[in-house]
Amino acid sequence: MSSKIISKLFVMAGFSNVLGVLLLSRGLTNQVMMDAQPEVMGYFGLIAIVLWGLAYIAVAKSYAAVPWLIAVFAVEKLAYVIVYLQWFTSHSISTVYERDAFAGVFYSIYGLNDFIFMLFFGWVFIRVFRKTKT
User: Fold this and answer.
1) Within 10 Å of residue 131's Cβ, how many Cβ atoms?
2) Residue by residue, what is the 3-state secondary structure of 20-72?
3) What is the DSSP secondary structure assignment for residue 100, as one 8-state letter?
4) How far apart are CA 105 and CA 134, in angstroms?
5) Rounded Cα distance, 120 and 63, in Å
6) Calpha distance 73→3 (Å, rounded)
7) What CA–CA distance (Å, rounded) separates 77 from 70?
8) What is the b/e burial string over 3-24, where b = at least 16 CB atoms within 10 angstroms of the residue's CB?
């Protein structure tokens, strides 16, 4: 995979965080979304997700210079995947959909989205780390 494509995927990861949160939370006002998992998706948590997204975009062109930051991105995504699985196995997604379709869509996709980008960041870290060792 070329550096140009990898950079575009960093931007895509960033926009999925920023736009995903801002659109599906209706500009950080979707109380159903925040109430469904307040310890992670409360107002502050949603702002943190937007900030993570901006961080991915910020390093899109210089990711190779910060391999350990990319490792942090992978671990951060792993944390969200674990929390999502815990939530998903003990809550009803249909109940969230009944209360708000936007929140339902968010809870339907955020775990998979984070899993995919966790794999991507992990792969990029390994690729860059190997290059710095040679």
Assistant:
1) 10
2) HHHHHCCCCCCHHHHHHCHHHHCHHHHHHHHHHHHHHHHCCCCHHHCHHHHHH
3) -
4) 44
5) 12
6) 18
7) 11
8) eeebbebbeebbebbbebbeeb
**How many angstroms separate the CA atoms of 25 and 46, rounded?**
8
For the stretch 51-100, pLDDT in tens is: 999 999 999 999 999 999 999 999 999 999 999 999 999 999 999 999 99
* 23 pLDDT more than 90: yes
Contacts of 58 by beta carbon, 8 Å cutoff, 6+ apart:
none
The answer, yes or no, to whether residue 119 has pLDDT greater than 90, is yes
Report d(CA 81, CA 63) in Å as an integer: 22
pLDDT tens by residue, 99-110: 999 999 999 999
> Which candidate, 2, 45, 30, places its Cα nearest to that of 96?
30
The token duo for 4 is: 């140009």
Under a CB-based contact definition with an 8 Å cutoff, are residues 24 and 30 in contact?
yes
Residue type for 85, please?
L
Tokens of 86: 């815990």
